[in-house]
Amino acid sequence: MAFDYPAPFLLLARELRRLPGIGPRSAERIALWILSNKDARPAQLAGALTAAATSIHPCAECGFFATHDLCEICLQPSRSGREMCVVELATDILPLEKTGSFRGLYHALGGRLAPLDHVGPEQLRIEPLLQRIRTGKPTEIILALSADVEGEATTNYLVEILEPLGLPLTRIAHGLPAGGGLEHADQITLQRALSGRRPVAER
Ligand SMILES: [Zn+2]
Q1: Measuring CA to CA, which residue among 154, 158, 196, 157 is closest to residue 174?
Q2: DSSP H or E segment with residue 89
Q3: 106 C-alpha to center of ligand 1: Å?
Q4: For residue 90, how far is its CA from the centre of ligand 1 (angstroms)?
């Protein structure tokens, strides 16, 4: 009979393997490291995982990561009644925030229209966006979606339903890189995209 690691080890390796970018070999290596390295702190790791997973949830307003009902950005009183920047994903917010050139509120849609993957307007946070616009009355709505086909289709859809609201409606100069890859866009590029935004009517 062929021997293998004990069952708790295999369970650990199997859970690690479910993480993105971790193959079977890496999972085994990480499991061995956790179990045999004196610097490993398995209890702290388990505690941090549980604490993060149970205490962090999407902000009820913008969709960013929050530990309370609202995130730190939405809680800043100076931001309400200003511009609202619409992005695809919650992970798009921080890179834009780090440019330092935007001090309004954000709204993450939770994705973009993708008919082939059965993602229609109902699957995105579009109705909450309309509600926020009605109650928050932003001075301008900035569309900051990705530059690929699905991002463009989503932008066009939003323009159609937002234009009748009569608020200033702009889009950033260059679309964002697709798929939440904003870490690859440097701050200056993002800053230029934001400051070079144009009214959608000029399309
Ligand atoms: Zn928020």
Answers
A1: 196
A2: none
A3: 7
A4: 9
Residue with tokens 């590029």: 189
Say if CB 24 and CB 14 are below 8 A apart.
Answer: no
What are 184's two structure tokens? 């690859």
Q: Tell me the CA–centroid distance for residue 10 and ligand 1, in Å.
A: 40
Q: Which residues of the chain have pLDDT under 70?
A: 178-184, 202-203
Neighbours of ion ligand 1 (CB under 5 A): 59, 61-62, 64, 71, 74
Chain segment 111-166, per-residue pLDDT in tens? 999 999 999 999 999 999 999 999 999 999 999 998 888 999 999 999 999 999 99
The pTM score is 0.85
Task: Say how many Å lie between the CA of residue 75 and the centre of ligand 1.
Answer: 7
> What is the average pLDDT score of the chain?
91
Burial of residue 192 (CB within 10 Å: 0-12, 13-18, 19+) is middle
User: How many A from CA of 73 to the centre of ligand 1?
Assistant: 6
- Domains (ranges, CATH) in the chain? 7-55 (1.10.8.420), 58-202 (3.40.1360.10)
Spatial distance between the Cα atoms of 169 and 163, rounded to a whole number of angstroms: 7
From residue 67, alpha-carbon distances to 70, 112, 133 in Å are 8, 25, 24
Cα 68 to ligand 1 centroid, rounded to whole Å: 10
In angstroms, what is the span from residue 44 Cα to ligand 1's centroid?
Answer: 28
